[in-house]
Design a protein that fits this description.
Layout lengths: L1 E8 L6 H12 L11 E7 L5 H16 L5 E8 L1
Antiparallel strand pairs: 1-2, 1-3
Length: 80
């Protein structure tokens, strides 16, 4: 089973990287750029076939290593 974990900064947390990306896009001539927030995508292949067990394992991975839950939120997407 394949999984995607999307990790983004929580609302209200400053995102200097997102700001830099927004400024760079404007500097390249792209008009109408509003707020830009950046995040990360982690793809994981699991041997697990049970969806509930996979989500439990992925949640534990996020809580222990993949995301800084103080400032980041995460979403898990499973694909068979």
């Amino acid at each position: 089973m394949k999984a995607r974990v999307f990790i983004r900064l929580k609302n209200g947390v400053l995102d200097p990287q997102g700001k830099a990306i927004g400024k760079a896009l404007t500097g390249l001539g792209f008009a109408g750029i509003g707020e830009v927030r950046q995040g990360k995508l982690i793809e994981i292949e699991l041997d697990e076939t049970d969806e509930a067990a996979a989500k439990t394992a992925l949640t534990e991975m996020c809580e222990k290593l993949l995301a800084n839950t103080v400032i980041e939120r995460y979403e898990i997407e499973l694909a068979k």
